[in-house]
Amino acid sequence: MRKKVLFLAALILVVPTPLQAQDAATSLFYSPQELWQIETALRREGSTLLTQAKHVLHCGSLVYVGPDQWIVWLQGEKWTPQTDRPNLHILSVEPESVRLSILMRGEKEPREVILRPNQSLNLLTGAVMEGIY
Questions:
Q1: Exposure of 12 by Cβ count < 10 A (0-12 exposed, 13-18 middle, 19+ buried)?
Q2: Domain final residue pick, 10, 30, 49
Q3: What is the rounded CA–CA span in Å between residue 92 and residue 98?
């Protein structure tokens, strides 16, 4: 019972009132009341509202210097020529694209896929889509 009381007391101190939200944030798109509601929902639901779908692989960007000097961001992780995973291998990187060997969900053999920056691969269907999902 004491833990619940302490938790509620801490929650009251942490969760802003609508008046506090007006002072804390401004937006071109949302009113202070809407911002407060969004922040409250995010706290209640946790960060799951902001996470990417688990069945989507996103290529954020790439930096190409040469065949053996490049950086690719996949799922927000930095990949270099030394990075490797059991179900995902970077086969080659070009100035505008990355060629991957990836084991899709439900398949036994890896599939080759080419992604450009800001493209996503649906690991369930194999579809390449523009943007992040």
A1: exposed
A2: 49
A3: 6
